[in-house]
Amino acid sequence: MEIKSAEFVMSNSDVAKCPKNNLPEYAFIGRSNVGKSSLINMLTNRKSLAKTSGRPGKTQLINHFIINGNWYLVDLPGYGYARVSKSAKKTFQKFITEYFSKRKQLVCAFVLVDIRHKPQPIDLEFMQWLGENMIPFSIIFTKADKLKPGAIDKHIEDYKSDMLQFWEDMPNYFITSSSKNVGKDELLNYIQDLNQNLFK
Ligand code: GTP
Ligand code: MG
Q1: CA nearest to 77, candidates 63, 60, 101
Q2: Nearest to 61 by CA among 26, 101, 10
Q3: What CATH topology corresponds to 6-198?
Q4: What's 119's DSSP letter?
């Protein structure tokens, strides 16, 4: 899929105020600093459409970006960020949970995980929760540039075998690097296929 346009639409913490039209949307979720906002910039060929930072906790709201005028990418705050106050954490958790439970336009959640780490309890719990709530999701491994190609295969195999202790099948997954532009076509084609199936 070619990205012809990508525009910021709105930020808010209230799911009821998110765009009201029924365009399909795809949300990026995962631990703070995993690279959600960077991936949005990589996919859309824009340097700073979504705000990024080396310090975790940058994205604090639900951010809608409209792509090619007919579908949305949604950038969300990270979960598991220890340095925000307890009450801020609760507020994040509340609106993230509400977003996923109420947003009917959500076609697929992408759960981002850093390719260098083993499955983390917080990611496993979140995927479990998505499963229980019948919210379709795929996994995106980020920061693949930080590993050598051989190590990437090994990490993916280890991740898979850990996942298979909880899941019957490994969810769909993608290997990406926002700094090296890896995984872009695969992800955009996947989204395009999902969009096309919706309008069949
Ligand atoms: P929050 O908004 O705080 O939840 O973080 P985020 O998940 O949106 O992460 P963000 O995109 O802001 O990136 C965090 C840091 O990781 C930044 O310093 C990015 O430059 C870096 N980063 C993101 N993606 C990649 C990648 O593919 N490779 C490398 N090497 N660094 C990356
Ligand atoms: Mg962010």
Answers
A1: 60
A2: 10
A3: Rossmann fold (3.40.50)
A4: P
For ligand 1, pick from 38, 143, 148 the residue to mutate: most ligand atoms within 8 Å of CB.
38
Three-state DSSP at 48 gives coil
**pLDDT tens readout for residues 137-179:** 999 999 999 999 889 999 999 999 999 998 999 999 999 999 9
Q: Which residue has the tokens 């490994």?
A: 170
Report whether 175 contacts 113 (CB < 8 A): no
Q: What span, in angstroms and rounded, lies between the C-alpha atoms of 191 and 180?
A: 20
| Separation of CA 154 from chain center | 23
Task: Give the mutation target among 53, 84, 114 for probing the ligand 1 site: most ligand atoms within 8 A of CB.
Answer: 53
- What is the full DSSP assignment across 1-28? -----EEEEEEES-GGGS--S---EEEE
Nearest CA, atom 14, ligand 1: 33
**Separation in Å, CA 166 to CA 55, 141, 171:** 32, 18, 11
Which ligand 1 atom is the nearest neighbour of the CA of 112?
A: 7
Residue 147 carries which side chain, given as an amino acid letter?
Answer: L
Please tell me the number of Cα atoms within 13 Å of 194 on its side-chain side. Answer: 22
The predicted model scores a pTM of 0.95
Residues 130 and 125: their CA atoms lie apart, in Å, by 9
Q: In a 10 Å sphere around its CB, with 0-12 CB exposed, 13-18 middle and 19+ buried, how is residue 162 labelled?
A: middle
